[in-house]
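PROTEIN DATA CARD
Card holder: Amino acid ABC transporter permease
Chain length: 236
Origin: Pantoea phytobeneficialis
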Amino acid sequence: MFGLDFSWLLDPTYQQWLLQGVLQTLELAALSSAFAIVIGLLGAFCLTFRLAWLDASIELFVELFRNTPPLLQMLFFYFTLTQIGFTTEDPVTGLQVPLISAFMSATVSLSLFGGALCIEAFRSGFDAVPKATLEAARSLGYTRWGLFRHVQVPIASRICLPPLTNVLTNLFKTTSQASVITVPELMYAAGQIYNDTFRTLEVMLLILVIYVVLVSLVVWLIGWVQRALAYPGYGA
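Structure generated from the sequence above:
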């Protein structure tokens, strides 16, 4: 049909590249999402202290990582840190190589980018927690940490799951930019295959389908969590 040729899919080498690409994409997305959620929760928790210098620091972090392209951040961590001395000697070649690997650079930059967006998502969730509920918890003797852990997080996490879904799905798709710094994820594997086979259209169609399936699984998983945590009046 339309002259499409997918016979290259039978080649074990290309199958191996695709499998490695999918696994690297999943690993990168899982690690970045986990760290981004932790950064988001910590940032939102710090904002509850209402300290001017702490609020200003978090706002600066959010503005810096939310308003700059994730690709630029990735290139910064991978190349700039090497230029200012974050290198080590390769025991085989004796050459200086980056101290932080391409995969680690991508994980750190995506985590910070996603973390900045998660802070905003969690902050909106915490702001939506009814003040009467917080006052009632304080009257029962909850400490600031206890209030955050046992009252704010359980309620806010239900409220902020819809915006958090958008953040995590966008973060998943942004992992494709890691191919620029030679992380062997899905887009990197695609480049290898179409440079080898010259079947660009077929490779891109396959990668498109794989991304649709993977992102749909992420959305389904978060939707399942939403339904599992849902209770009336708190958004999920």
